Amino acid sequence: MQDIILLTGAGKGIGRAIALDFSSKAQNNISFNPVLVLCSRTYSEIATLAEECAELGTKVLPIEADIAKPDDIDRLVRQTLEEFGTIDCLINNAGVGRFKSLTELTEEDFDYTMSVNMKGTFFLTQKVFPIMEKKRSGHIFFITSIAAETAFKNSSVYSMSKFGQKGLAETIRLYGRECNVKITNVMTGAVYTPMWGDAGNEFKNVMMMPEDIAGPIVDAYLQPPRTSVEEIVLRPVGGDINS
Ligand SMILES: NC(=O)c1ccc[n+]([C@@H]2O[C@H](COP(=O)([O-])OP(=O)(O)OC[C@H]3O[C@@H](n4cnc5c(N)ncnc54)[C@H](OP(=O)(O)O)[C@@H]3O)[C@@H](O)[C@H]2O)c1
Predict the structure, then answer these.
(1) Of all atoms in ligand 1, which is nearest to the CA of residue 147?
(2) Which of 160, 162, 227, 234 could be disulfide-bonded to 145 (CB atoms 3.0-4.6 Å)?
């Protein structure tokens, strides 16, 4: 049996590490046969990653799509269903952040962040959930953040979007419990990824690495059908770096 896994934001950082972790764990587990549908806006990155996963023996389909655009969401889901017939796992990982003080943030920063983190995550989930509801099985992950429940001064808009994603995860879980669909909210602290830009290098020694996040996510997916990992909280051992 194949597991059709749709992963957004797969081209870099945490998403890329999740795809590689699925592929490498499948190598050591003959009963686990993941098929990865990799989505991001930069085709070259997901195409390269697709080659790496294929080398590990995983079937992969890279699809360029911007989850902030409803038409792209429709195409992403349609193409996945045409190719593989179902979706077993959705990993809502694509996300953006604009980190500035309260008065520096612009309307464009607000709209951009909300269009990806809130609107994109909501409408993709809304499209995929009924597929799982109908077959009474599936798993949806929301890669939110520690900023979904902890405030940081330069994260007002980002934090709003992540609190919102957490609200969505908790609401969808109420539906999921009625139809055997698992919902996992992944709240992670600072991870060394391109999201941090140049600031990442300054803090690298007190951050987690993308593979530290990917491992527990794939392990949560591989739990027995009776068990749902509802929340995963991961922090650098020294705590939040900008608290
Ligand atoms: N890094 C951290 O410290 C940290 C901490 C807590 C939570 N998180 C969350 O973890 C998730 C992944 O973050 P990351 O650090 O790995 O970020 P990243 O390195 O910037 O990677 C983000 C990925 O999402 C894709 N993406 C962005 N906007 C998209 C859109 N509209 N449609 C489709 N794909 C899109 C990006 O590719 P394109 O730009 O090519 O589309 C990229 O592949 C995010 O939701 C983030 O909020 C990160």
Answers:
(1) 6
(2) 162
